[in-house]
Amino acid sequence: MASNSPRNDPWAEPELTGRAGKKASKAAARQAKKAARSKKERWYKQMASVYKLVAKEQPLIWLWLVLIFCGIEGAGLLIGGFIWQGRLGYMAFLSAPIGALAATMFLARRAEATAYGRIEGQAGAAASALGTIRRGWTIGDEPVAVDPRSMDMVFRAVGRPGIVLIGDGNPNKLRGMLKKEHQRVARVAPGVPVTELTVGRGEGQVPLRKLVRKMRRLKPVLNKTALAEVNRRLQSIGGIRLPVPKGIDPLKARPDRKALRGR
């Protein structure tokens, strides 16, 4: 690498060549790797932060974790002591990681439920849940319909089960918004199944934490070619259309020349 300092600069550091240069480059690479590892959070620190998050909402979570671990460990000891005799130590050793894994999975589930519980009922909470879907669905970053007064929103997802419209807000107001959006997508993608879901705790609604699971359980009906064609057609209708005040045509509006001249 060429130095930025002039060649005749007496204060410039001499460039290392040969073996010394190779050693210096290797040392710099080791330091960079070490710095990257130090920045990366260890798994046990992540688990500690998850536990603290859940413990704020559920103080007895530690008891459930202990019961799960001890229950699986006790089952292993019973199998090793009575059913598979002579394998007590082996079963105790084998049950320990299984119990730890089961307790970790339970903690992850409770952490997910706690995170959803904190954002449930807020405007745009459905977008956070939809953001956890990684494969198989095409979901826009912004809603396709919004009521600016009540902040009721409609999101659109496209996957092999067809088109899914997700309403987030007041179910009474969302009914009309979902119907309008249903008609829009039906014009450009006729024959494609359109499923309407409303997030909430009421009758006929889907809880926020079960939204992704509900979408994944929908029956696939489109192949990859048809799915790409549906996505291409839906791009033509775009997303949110901002309302324009009645009686004003921005394309035909004339500027006030007196105001422009400073009068």
Describe, in plain words, how this protein is organized in 3D.
With 263 residues, the protein is α+β, with helices and mostly antiparallel strands. Helices cover 53% and strands 10% of the residues. It contains nine helices and five strands, in the order H-H-H-H-H-E-E-E-E-H-E-H-H-H. The protein has helices spanning 18-39, 43-57, 61-83, 88-119, 125-130, 171-188, 211-216, 224-237, 257-260; strands at residues 137-139, 145-146, 153-159, 162-168, 194-199. Strands 1, 2, 3, 4 and 5 form a five-stranded mixed β-sheet that branches. The longest helix has 32 residues, at 88-119. The chain is extended. The model is unreliable at 1-7, 9-13 and 242-253 (pLDDT under 50).
Provide a short characterization of the protein structure.
This protein is an alpha+beta fold. It has 2 domains: 43-119, no CATH class; 125-237, no CATH class.
Label this structure with key terms.
263 residues; alpha+beta; 5 strands; extended; disordered N terminus
